[in-house]
Amino acid sequence: MSQHTTDTHAMMQPRYTGIPTFMRVALADNWDDVDIGLIGVPYDGGVTNRAGARHGPREIRNQSSLMRTMHHVTRINPYALARVADLGDVLFQRLLKHPEALDEIEAVFARVKSHGIIPIAAGGDHTISLPILRALAKDRPVAMVHIDAHTDTWDEFQGSKFSHGSPFRRATEEGLIDPTKVIQIGIRGAQNTTDGWDFSREKGMRVVFMEEFAEIGVDAVIAEARRVVGDAPVYLTFDVDGLDPIYTPGTGTPEIGGITTLEAQKLLRGLRGLNYIGADVVEVAPNYDTTGNTALVAATLMYEMLCLIAERLAATR
């Protein structure tokens, strides 16, 4: 990665050739020449039911070979605007010790931040957003756009404070996110208690339940997200179970009645120009989807995020 623009030669080759990397970009051994880093976090130690998201990054890489360079709507070519590289995966030494594994994730993203890189992570379960925020938002609380079927603001599960149902409760408690600048979109599904919903509301998060999303439409939700976030530094997190499981069956906690892929793309494209500090796509569990479609959807969402962040970077230079 010595060039100031991303080498797109590999992207022009047949898409079944080469070593799989995110979007077929170069695998970076030197992080000094990278603006946007695509990074896998193969961890699902926080799942409460169906495991398998640890295999998400590998399959998302495979399916991202189907991505091309230029966006058909915005005509953005992110590789012409920023230096993009695959940073590999977070590697673990204490994978089975949950809090320590989260520390390891945090340490990698602290290194990413120290190089001035904006990360787009592929999970892994939604627990990974907490250590990423610990690294990226260490100095001040940030805003957040959160697309999901669940608020992920629940408390302890089976005696653990850390699970894929609790990252944004912990992030609020730790001062990593400003709850008054958080919007949660697509929330739905029955629960055994109201704890998570209540926490989000009481802390000032804007919760857009799926019924409201369907009633007011994507454009109104975009406007509301932009109002909530404003010009604050913002983290973008997308749990694929926010989509209807007809599009993403390969996930741990599917909920019917969700967002369509077309609505998701329109939603993300409506968030152009925000002050992004990072993003993630999480909860792809390929073992529940033999078609590979869930990972393809996630790869496409990552590409949409890449376009957003590259455009923002170019505009601020």
UniProtKB/TrEMBL annotation:
<feature type="binding site">
    <location>
        <position position="148"/>
    </location>
    <ligand>
        <name>Mn(2+) 1</name>
    </ligand>
</feature>
<dbReference type="InterPro" id="IPR020855">
    <property type="entry name" value="Ureohydrolase_Mn_BS"/>
</dbReference>
<dbReference type="GO" id="GO:0008783">
    <property type="term" value="F:agmatinase activity"/>
</dbReference>
<keyword id="KW-0479">Metal-binding</keyword>
<feature type="binding site">
    <location>
        <position position="152"/>
    </location>
    <ligand>
        <name>Mn(2+) 1</name>
    </ligand>
</feature>
<keyword id="KW-0378">Hydrolase</keyword>
<feature type="binding site">
    <location>
        <position position="241"/>
    </location>
    <ligand>
        <name>Mn(2+) 1</name>
    </ligand>
</feature>
<dbReference type="GO" id="GO:0046872">
    <property type="term" value="F:metal ion binding"/>
</dbReference>
<comment type="similarity">
    <text>Belongs to the arginase family. Agmatinase subfamily.</text>
</comment>
<feature type="binding site">
    <location>
        <position position="239"/>
    </location>
    <ligand>
        <name>Mn(2+) 1</name>
    </ligand>
</feature>
<dbReference type="InterPro" id="IPR023696">
    <property type="entry name" value="Ureohydrolase_dom_sf"/>
</dbReference>
<dbReference type="Pfam" id="PF00491">
    <property type="entry name" value="Arginase"/>
</dbReference>
<feature type="binding site">
    <location>
        <position position="126"/>
    </location>
    <ligand>
        <name>Mn(2+) 2</name>
    </ligand>
</feature>
<dbReference type="InterPro" id="IPR005925">
    <property type="entry name" value="Agmatinase-rel"/>
</dbReference>
<dbReference type="InterPro" id="IPR006035">
    <property type="entry name" value="Ureohydrolase"/>
</dbReference>
<protein>
    <submittedName>
        <fullName>Agmatinase</fullName>
    </submittedName>
</protein>
<feature type="binding site">
    <location>
        <position position="150"/>
    </location>
    <ligand>
        <name>Mn(2+) 1</name>
    </ligand>
</feature>
<keyword id="KW-0464">Manganese</keyword>
<dbReference type="GO" id="GO:0033389">
    <property type="term" value="P:putrescine biosynthetic process from arginine, via agmatine"/>
</dbReference>
